[in-house]
Structure formats: C-alpha cells, structure tokens
Amino acid sequence: MGSSRFSTRLLNISIASFCKSQQLEKAEATIADAIRLGYIPDVVTYNTLIPAYTHFVGFDAAYLILNRITKSGLTPDVVTYNSLIAGATRCSLVPQSLGLLEEMQRSGINPSVWTYNTLMHCFFISGQLEEARRMFDKIIYSNLTPCQTTFNTIINGLCKVGDTSNALLYFRRIQSRGFSPKIVTYNILINALCKSRKLREARRFLKELKESGHDPNAITYTTVIKWYFRSSRFEEGFKIFLEMKSKGYTFDAFAYCTVISTLVMKGKMEEANVCIEHMVRNGVLDIVSYNTLISFYCKEGKLESALKLLDEIDKGGMNTDEYTHTILIDGLCRTGDIDKAQQHLKHMKLRGYDTNFAASNCLISGLCKSGQYEYALKLFEKMEFKDSFTYTSLVHGFCKAGKFCEAANIMIKCLRSGMKVLTSVQRAVFYGLRDKGLGREVRKLRSAIRIARTYSRYKSELR
C-alpha cells in the first residue's frame, strides 16, 4: 500500500512537470501508462490537469476533467472546484463561476477562502462591485480566516475602478481587525493615490510603510517618483530619489531612466551623467535602458550625449540592436542632419542588420522634410518591405513639393499593395491635382480608391 502511494506521488510530480512545460499529451500518456501498470491516479492527479487544460486548451476541456474524476470512482474536492472557478474567472465566465460554487455546495463541499478570493476577483473584472464586496463580507463574517490575498484583492479591485476612498476605508478596517498589511498592499494603495494625484497622501503612506517595519522596495519609490515627475513637481520627485539613494535602497533600471529623463528635460546634464555612471557601476544598465536614454536624448536634441552613450555600449562589450541604431537615425533626421543619418543606415547594413525597415522609414521621412524627394524615392524603390507610414511619408513629401502627379502615382501603388494613406494626405493630393487642372488624374485616382475598397470588402467577406 505504501509503495502504491509513493508511486502515485511520483506520478503526480511527473504530471505537474509536463503541465508546466505545456506537454499535455505526454501528461495524458503518462496517466494511461500508470493505469496499465496498476498505479491508480488520485484526485490530485486530475486537479493538476485542470489549470493546464484551462490555460492551454480552454475552460470546456478543463470542465470535462470533473466527469473523469467521478467516473474513476474518486470524489472532487475543494481544490478541484477552486481550480475550475479560477479557470472560469480567467476566461471571464461569471455564470459558470457561480454555477460551480452552487455545484460544490450541493456536493457538500464547503467553499474555502480561496474560493471566495477568486470569485471576488471574478466580480471585480466583470464590473460587479457590490457582488465583489459581498464575497469579501462572506469571508470576514464566516469561520474562514482571510489571507493577504483577500485584502489585496478587495483593495486592488477598488483602486482599479478609481474608488480610492473606499479602498482606504477597507485598508483601515483590515488594520483595526489586527491584520498587518504587507508591502504589496501598501504599493497598491500608493500607486492608486498617485494616479488620483493625491501625492501628499501617498507620501504619508510611504512614511507609514517605513514605520510599520517594512522596507519600501524599488516599486514603492519608483511609483512615487514617477508621479511627482508627471505632475511637474521635479524637485520633490528628485528629493525622494536622493532619499532612496542615501538610505541604500536598490534601484532598478526604470527608476534610473525616469530620473535621468527628468534631469535632461530640466537641463541638468551633469547630474544626469552622474546617474548614468551609478547605473553602470551598479550593473543595472542593459540595452533596453540604453535605448530608452538614447531615445530621450535624441528627442531633446542632445545628439552628442546620445552618441556618447553609443560609445559606452561598445566599450562595455554590450551588443547594440537594430532599435538602438533606428533611434539614432530618427534623432539625426529630427535635427536635420540627413547626411549622418544616411551614413548610419549604411553602417547598419555593414553590421549585418538586414531588418532595417523602421530605420529606412525614419530616413525617408527625414529626406522628405529636408526636400530631398528624389533620394527619398530611390530609397523607397530599394526597400523590400513597405508599410502605410512609408507611403504616407513619401506622398506627403511630394505634395509639399507641389509634385502632385508623382504623389498620386505613389498613392495608387500604395492602394494596389492593400495599404492605406492618411485621409488628410489623400485630400491634399486631390486638392493639388484639381488646382493644377489635372481632371484626368483625379478620375484615375478615384477609380483606384474605388477598386481598392471593393477588393477590401471582398476579402472581408471571404474571411
């Protein structure tokens, strides 16, 4: 008997492993082999399958496992129903979730705190706030012991619908019952208060968090810093950043990038460079962070600083990606340095970046803005892939140059490729052709638009 139980436990470990790696066929084959060898699966085996089937196949397939449990002579337990309710909730199936609650109660199975936690979440995501509160009250006024997830679910649900006042009332109510909220709960409330622009109250909660014996983490501080900056209260935001730094709290890349971006906007380049040095020393500067900072420098027209960061990437032995170079090309085009932008596109090709589609789009837009329409057209013709932005940039450029026939021809090519040009740009082409008395070209363009629309409708009907 002990050997059989031990083998079933090993079977369940194998099934859990296959389910985690999305290998449901192997999980089912293992169950079939076990039965042939005389090792009977227990309810835990089938309970393990339910979340996997919900996630990778669908709720209906998961629900069928309930029949398999009863046909095997086993009795579903609270975990079986909790797993099914969680699956129905994930699929936003409120009636099925409630039906499962009734079914488990008819079977004589008492709902657990996790049953009500899941149903509370289900009601919140479906917008039924009163029902969600009713589930919370059922936990509080029954013999069940609420857990941290119970409190986080009710507070997070209220915060997400913007009901911060009631979220705070529930928070205080929880504290009055002797429960000590964890850092996750504080972070939920601090974020909600910041979103509501109640920054002073968010600061008070940050202070209360420290006094309660919890250490604020990077999420806590970054949330407050971000919202101070968004509210243009840069000095206060930077003060919190320095406070966080002086107390030895760890930073993530997002916190640093948020602060550096603000310093650049305020023209405090020296302080921004000090922060970048800190990022390098602490090893939190990855290629995504570099790309974020390069993009911000480019938008602010500080190309020298952006190029300096590119040198730092190379010196640090880190590999740039196509986004790094696309950002730089866009920055060079924005400042009108088209020659350097062209050189950088060639540099991308030399470094083996074949998929420079976004970079080419940036350059075409820049060439059109600088009046180099013919070169833009040559680059356009060489491009293997084009999208609506490519065509729109070129059509708009030729319209600005008064070359409406060329703009119309590009627009017709665009329509024949199954893509669209912005309505405002289409109007500009029509107005330009009419002003020049080119009625024949107007009719030709109208015909191309009608054909494109008919073809588009036909394709939709086929689907």
UniProtKB/TrEMBL annotation:
Pfam families: PPR, PPR_2. InterPro entries: PPR/CCM1_RNA-binding, PPR_rpt, TPR-like_helical_dom_sf. This is Pentatricopeptide repeat-containing protein. Keywords: Repeat. SUPFAM superfamilies: HCP-like. The keyword Cell inner membrane does not apply. NCBIfam families: PPR (TIGR00756). It comes from Kingdonia uniflora. PPR repeats lie at residues 42-76, 77-111, 112-146, 147-181, 182-216, 217-251, 286-320, 321-355, 356-386, 387-421. PROSITE patterns: PPR (PS51375). The keyword Hydrolase does not apply.
